[in-house]
Input
Amino acid sequence: MKYGEIDFDTYFKNYPDKNGYFGKYGGAYIPDELKNAMDEITEAYFTICKSSKFINELRRIRKEFQGRPTPISYLERLSGKLGHVQLYVKREDLNHTGAHKLNHCMGEALLAKYMGKKKVIAETGAGQHGVALATAAAYFGLECDIYMGAVDIKKQAPNVARMKILGANVVEVTDGLATLKEAVDAAFAAYSRDYKDCIYCIGSVVGPHPFPMMVRDFQSVVGIEAREQFLDMTGELPDAIVACVGGGSNAMGFFSGFLNDPVDIYGVEPLGRGSALGDHAASLTYGSEGIMHGFNSIMLKDENGDPAPVYSVASGLDYPSSGPEHAFLHDIERVKYDVVNDDDTIDAFFTLSRLEGIIPAIESSHAVAYAMKLAEKMGRGSILINLSGRGDKDMDYVIEKYGIR
Output
């Protein structure tokens, strides 16, 4: 299928290019001392990911340890409430550790093991990436340092406890707004000091090349499974698919299975409290081209052109940029990116819980909220939502801030 000048039959062979660019987005804007480290990771990935030993080991892990494939569930009661559009969810909340994050963490940790590294380093916002990497480190016998903003540590206490129980060293970051961006800053700084013995396991499709490509590839299992499962369940493709987007790992993995199909694709960003700068984290909707954390993409900027302060009720979405591939898909209009605010997100959190017995992560609730609005506009057809994680980690925070609705 062609979309504009882009031929999606050969898309994954051409994007990113050899320098890590999706059109003008991506690349590797890093200090000279890290270039050798990135080159080492790139070379290792392109070598190992084509080996049958690596592929078979990853497949075994996904089946025997992660519990893949995760199922698709039909939301019968929610669909009936909204009208004639049929809603379905891809259940990444049932992946081991409760979210999609383990898909790339097991791949990255396996890569680290093959490279002879002793430690993995990462940042985390909502804590799901941190828990997933701590799980992978325990599985492979690696040391693990997780950098997390002080604000997120308070909001996500259950996941902090899980990381520590799994043996990870949780490093509290108090700089700036003490959320996800600052955690990334601190983790990159630590990695630059210790890259010979460790590997940075980025938690999304962001950062310098090859991470946006690697994380997308490891997460593509979600889209591949979902497409096959939906066809098996219904005999046809969904009319639309929806996923939340912060950095964008769950969405990019999910979207990748459908880019070459006549399916409408929607990425949902956090509008938070409103459209004023500092009240949201909707970079693709309100941002402009800029470089941060080693890659060029679309980002939210302050008056000095630096990354702007951001906010979202979802700790995993409060990042001032998005993955370079999302920026590319935004520009060529293959994916429509839109926003949902905090209030609609929390309403969707409770609605899905009450009607379907599924408590979603607040991040995933953005996608649910948007799909509910989309269903009312469509009138008929089908929507497949990527339920990227479960809401256990969010329950205390939601009850404290919003009560039981």
Q: What stands out?
A: The chain has 16 helices and 16 strands. The chain has a mean pLDDT of 95. The CA atoms of residues 54 and 181 lie 32 Å apart. The first strand starts at residue 2 and ends at 3.
